[in-house]
Amino acid sequence: MLKFIRPDRCDNSGPNCVEVAVDADLNRIVRNSQRPQVQVVFDPEEWAVFVSSVRAGQDF
User: What is residue 57's three-state secondary structure?
Assistant: First the structure.
């Protein structure tokens, strides 16, 4: 079973937070706490590119 975590800035009492888990293959699984059945999977390379883009200030 995956252990999803929320960012520190997320108000844990609210129902609308982004949650991320890491599986055995180091893929990142991202979901919205309001709709946990909908998940997006990033492989390690995709995740690294995404994080790098966010840190660089790229808008999505």
Answer: coil
Helix (H) or strand (E) holding 47: helix 44-55
For each of the chain's 60 residues, which pLDDT tens digit applies?
899 998 888 876 666 789 999 999 999 999 998 899 999 999 999 999 999 999 999 886
Question: In the numeric block, which tokens belong to residue 45?
Answer: 């390379």
Distance of CA 42 to the CA centre of its chain: 9
Cβ atoms 29, 40 nearer than 8 A? yes
Tokens of 2: 């995956």
The residue type of 4 is F
